[in-house]
Design a protein that fits this description.
Distance between the termini: 62 Å
Helix content: 25-40%
Radius of gyration: 22 Å
Strand order of the largest sheet: 13-12-9-10-11-14-21-19
Number of strands: 22
Bound molecules: ligand MV4
């Protein structure tokens, strides 16, 4: 095992990684920006190193500064967390070239799965279901138009380098497709420096289903079942749960096993999430693979008993996965809500500033992953998420009630948060029925805004 790990991240995920290090007997070195000076999670690190000013580009995204911090602290490995440099294959390469273990996949596996055209090709070869569409990036627009006519409209144009909803265009006829390809190409070139786009069948009213997988450096890979993340607004997830409600066990096993096969074939080490859309008949179509530990990993930890962050560090150190597929079982139900410092009544405007009151919830099955507390001043520079409330219970109905109780106990002020919004969403009839799709939050927000004006 490593003697010392450098954490190239901040906030709740830095704290989560520190906790994992502590249990493994590993020292944790935390880098921070001057905007994060005095951040509560830094008190828990064995050593902290300031790497620059507030803007991420000058600190958490600055590769040379992070490598320099790893050198001066004699760390053996670097944990990127999520966001920032976590899916940057160049960073993973620089870590390797500088003699540090990157806690995550090899740059080769990251590149193979991070490029969506490549990832879909590998998925087709290994039997992971994908949407029909162009097999390569579009060279010739007429060829793409032919494919679209075969698979039938509506179709969607996507950037091969994209993710999280950027560089996408829906097309409902040939004219829209021709315009959409041009627009998506330009957007992708500007955003990712890669104008490659592809076309696939567009699915309306889908559910978002994602499979947690883990691999090691010895050719093993398992899945840890799935999460439903359909509760989202503008591609930002609000609520995540495991297992996905109402899914047929045989279909679940089949799609989860296909995800494990995909990452095994990619020689993937560490935690990966294979994203799918699910239609009303419980057919699955792979969207993309996230090559990092995700925000919502705790719901999977709660239902499987696997510590994903600790296991990720172990496999990076060369250990074999400490479990096989037959050791993994679903126990009960878990739901996570993201506590964002945002004002849902004012267009989800981020709320920087001082937290004066902070009363945390507790009780059986209640987990709070947060770096916030009374007296913490939220800096304006970063993501608005200040924590995650995760509840575990024997079944979904009990889990929802337990979570509502915990949300009522949770008092944060004067900073506005998403706590009151979650209490309303958990009572939404579609959510309660487990029949909600990826659009229900935005549909409901629009309806309530109209009702408030009338
Ligand atoms: C789709 C789709 C429908 N059909 N692909 C959005 C983010 C990116 N990961 C992929 N996305 C979508 N791809 C096909 N073929 C609908 C979406 C989509 C979506 C997916 C997951 C969660 C929320 C979403 C919100 C809008 C659109």
């Amino acid at each position: 095992m490593f003697k010392r790990v450098l954490i190239a991240n901040r906030g709740e995920i830095a704290l989560r990684i520190i906790r994992a290090c502590r249990e493994l007997g590993v020292e944790a070195v935390c880098v921070y920006s001057s905007a994060d000076k005095g951040g509560p999670w830094l008190e828990q690190a064995d050593r902290t190193i300031c790497i620059g000013p507030g803007p991420s580009k000058e600190s958490y995204l600055k590769i040379e500064r992070i490598i320099a911090a790893a050198e001066v602290s004699h760390a053996e490995a670097i944990h990127p967390g999520y966001g920032f440099l976590s899916e940057n294959a160049h960073f993973a390469e620089v870590c390797r070239a500088s003699g540090f273990e990157f806690i995550g996949p090899s740059p080769e596996a990251m590149n193979a799965l991070g490029d969506k055209v490549n990832c879909k090709r590998l998925a087709r070869q290994t039997g992971t279901p994908v949407f029909p569409g162009t097999e390569d990036a579009i060279e010739d627009i007429d060829e793409a138009v032919k494919v679209a006519a075969e698979i039938e409209y509506p179709v969607i144009v996507k950037a091969r380098a994209g993710g999280g909803g950027r560089g996408m265009r829906i097309a409902r006829d040939e004219a829209e497709l021709r315009v959409g390809i041009d627009a998506a190409r330009q957007e992708a070139a500007a955003a990712f420096g890669d104008g490659g786009v592809y076309v696939e069948k567009f699915l309306e009213n889908a559910r978002h289903f994602e499979v947690q997988t883990m691999g090691d450096k010895h050719g093993h890979a398992v899945h840890l079942y799935e999460r439903d993340c359909s509760s989202q607004r503008r591609h930002q997830k609000l609520i995540e749960e495991a297992p996905a409600p109402g899914v047929d066990p045989k279909k679940r096993d089949r799609v989860c096993e296909s995800a494990a096969t995909l990452i095994r074939e990619a020689k993937y080490s560490g935690a990966a999430t294979v994203e799918f859309l699910m239609d009303r008949h419980q057919n699955f179509y792979m969207l993309e693979v996230n090559t990092r530990v995700q925000v919502e990993h705790p719901v999977t930890e709660m239902i499987t008993g696997v510590d994903i962050v600790k296991t990720g560090i172990r496999v990076a150190a060369g250990e074999e996965l400490p479990f096989t597929q037959k050791d993994i079982h679903i126990n009960g139900h878990a739901i996570e809500v993201r506590i964002n410092a945002e004002d849902p009544d004012r267009g989800f405007m981020p709320q920087a500033g001082l937290i004066e009151t902070y009363a945390a919830p507790g009780g059986p099955g209640v987990r709070l992953d947060s770096h916030a507390r009374a007296g913490y001043r939220i800096p304006p520079n970063y993501d608005s998420m200040i924590g995650k409330l995760i509840v575990h219970a024997p079944d979904r109905a009990t889990c929802i009630e337990r979570l509502k109780g915990a949300l009522r106990e949770f008092k944060i002020g004067p900073v506005k948060t998403t706590i009151p919004l979650h209490l309303k969403l958990l009572d939404h009839p579609d959510f309660r029925a487990g029949s909600h799709d990826i659009h229900y939050v935005e549909r409901w927000l629009k309806e309530t805004a109209v009702a408030a004006k009338a």
